[in-house]
Structure formats: structure tokens, C-alpha cells
Amino acid sequence: MHAHSIAELAAGLRERRFSSRELTAHYLGRIERLDPSLNSYITVSAEAALAAADAADARIAAGDAGPLTGIPIAHKDIFLTQGLKTSCGSRMLDNFTAPFNGTVVERLAGAGAVVLGKLNMDEFAMGSSNETSYYGPVRNPWDTERVPGGSSGGSAAAVAAGLCAAATGTDTGGSIRQPAAFCGVTGVKPTYGRCSRWGMVAFASSLDQAGVLARSAADAALLLGAMAGFDERDSTCASEPVPDYGALLADDIEGLRIGLPTEYFGEGLDAGVEASVRAALAALEQLGASILDISLPNAPLSVPVYYVVAPAECSSNLARYDGVRYGHRCEAPKDLEDLYKRSRTEGFGTEVKRRIMIGTYALSAGYYDAYYLKAQQLRHLIAGDFRRAFEQVDLIMGPTTPTTAFPLGAKTDDPVAMYLNDIYTIAANLAGLPGLSVPVAPVDGLPAGLQMIGNYFAEGRLLNVAHRLQQATDWHRAMPPELD
Ligand code: GLN
Question: What is the pTM of this model?
């Protein structure tokens, strides 16, 4: 059952070949049996899932079911889920039970999706390997000695291993697309503002965006359609109407103009990854697309710009964890300063502390102009590169990541090497553009991804092109070896 698409599962439910309770129990059984070798879940909510499955079965029986009714999914542990622990991968929130549902969670629940539990992630979504999680690293189902990518590593690993039908994720600099590429699943990071950030723990508010990890573009379209749309509780949420993504999937792609940025095919790109990406591009040409070389001259600056902007915003967002309101509080504080200091020292891990310190420094008087202001100016130039490129082409494509998944521990001592994983993904976040990663031919047995970047609110076109590629090829159907 876990190899089926959501549409196939929904048909099975509709035709009473199985119930949502049976389907949910099937996934819960797999989690119990297989997740000890992956560590993709932080919390499994078996009882609540079975109750939601019964409610979905009642809706199906009453003829009141949508395409997601009774489908078992899971949420990245960054989304607030009422009555369920929401840790954000941090000791700071290990004792935190969310008092309400985030908008994305609420909308998927309204569509009848069943929540199996909460997925592991890098602490506060800071990382590219899932190794900064307080709950330990997630392992890549294709090779358990390797990382699944991050920060939505639990989401990518769980979808790849068939431990949920699809999952939510968030992407601030690549955290949906990079783990999707490493685990061989389809990942969509929508336009900034497409999905509400209400009830999503904040990392870098001008970059954070909720999205989906799924087995195919068609599955992702179903979830995104349910999640997206205006929410008055998030002032940066877009009022742009949400198209019926499913209805756009089959559109013809004859005449599609694809731009390949020279900056995304240079030094540092693994030859095997490049060959697989080029094979996928050739498949799109077969479907009638044409390919053009373009340039994003400022894109190479995106990693340094991001590592000023994102830490600056994180230093401000994470100031709320003070040991007073909620989250970790140290034992027997001497005074207020001791309470702040020890609660934060104990609650945050190394990477989070590094970012808070960089951000606080970059924002301090005397350095603000040199770092933060300069980074914002460069961010503007990066967005301008895309604006010019989209006058010439419809979509921009290239590799999602420079290499396939690396071994656990390989980059933990070298933050800059770790940061360079996102060299091709970060620019889209800085510009606020939608991006998607689809599996291409494996490289030495490991998944790799083709990244597609679209203009603002072009999610429908991205999903359409990804779907047409997935109809013509079967790279996305590959499943990792069954764990035991
Ligand atoms: N890997 C990047 C970082 O560590 C991006 C993370 C993300 O997108 N949440 O910040």
C-alpha cells in the first residue's frame, strides 16, 4: 500500500478495498518496525491517528470525502499541532505541547488527512543533514550510513521509506528541496507567502515557507492545494487565489523555455549528478521544451548573503526563548540573568548558538551597515537576476544539490562545507520564488534531484512540468531497499 500514489490510495478508500483505519494501521506498523533504523519520527500519535481514521471512514461512508480524506501523512515538528508535542528538533521545546494548530495543519486536517505523528528535523530548521537535532540524526533509507539532508530530513526519509504517504516540510534556504533530492522524493517550496506561517515555529521570517514532500508531483499538488491560500493571521501571506493544481498537471509543455544558469553547472558539481540532471533535461526536450543558457551573475553570492540575513532574523526570533514564557527552564536560577543565561545555554544546541551569535553581531551598531545592510542590497541584486532571466525563459533548472547524500559525520566539523550544500537552492528563498526538486537517475545507487525554479506563484506550472516528466520517466518510482 505504501508504494501507491495518494490518488490510488484515495480510490482504494472510495471503493472500500480498505478502510482508512486499515491504511493508518499499516503505516503505524511500518513505523514501529522500520523507524528504529531511521529515526524519522520524534512523536508517533497512534491513538489520535486511528481516531482521525475512523472519522475519515465515516466521512467516506457518508459520501463527503475529498482526495485527502483518510490519507495518512505526517508533519515536520516545526508545525504546531494541538495537544501534541512540537519540539522543533530542540531541547528548548522538548517539553512544549502546542495549544493550537498551525494554519497548514488545520487546513490539512479539514481536508480529512490523518496525522501519524511529528517528524524529526534539524534544530530550529538550521542544518542540511538532520544532525543538529536534539533527538539524534535521521538516517537516509537508501544508505543508513548517510544523511537524509536537512532540515526536513525526517520528512524526506519517512516519505522515501513509505512511513507516511506524504509530509509537510519547511524551506528557508533549501530544507525541502535538498532532503528531497538526497532521499529520492518530490519536494515543493512554494512562493514566499503562498502558505501561511501562522503556527510554524519561526527561523528566518522573510525566508521561511511551508511546503510538501511527496512521492510524486501529482501527490504534492493535492497537499499544496489544501495547504495554500490567504490567512489573515500571517501578514505576509499572499491573497493571490489558489489555482486547482490538479487540473493543471496534464497541460502540454510543448514550447516551454527552460533556462540553465551557467553558475549552476560549474566547479563543485559532481559529474554523476550533472549527467543525471542532463538526462532529465533531455527527457523534457523530448516532450517539446527548449533549453537556453542563461546567467544569474549574483547567484554565487547567495550563500554569504543568506548567512547574514538568516542568522540576523534568527537571533531576533529566538530571543523569545528566555526560560520565562514556555520551553526549557534551568533548575533553581539565582536571579533573572542567571535564568536567561542558563535556560538558553542548556536549551539550545551548538549550531543554533552559532547562528544567534553571528546574527547578533551582524545587527549590532557599527556592523549593521557593513553586513546586514550590504546583504539586503545584494539580496535585491539576486532577485533582479531572476527578474531578468524570467523575461527570457519560463522556468530555470539545474541540479538541486552539488553531490548526493554524504556520510553521517562527514561535515559536522566544518560549518562552511555544510552550508555549501545549499548553493543552488538558497537564491530562490532570497528572491521569494517557488522551487521544486524531482528525482532523477540515481548516481552510484543514491538519489539525485533536478531543481526547477519558477516565477512568483508559478507552482502550478512547476507541478505540471514535474508531472509530465514523471509520466514520461520512472525515476520517482524507485523505492529504497526495504529496511529490517
Ligand atoms: N541548510 C540551510 C540552513 O542551515 C537551510 C535550512 C532551511 O531551509 N531551513 O540554514
Answer: 0.98
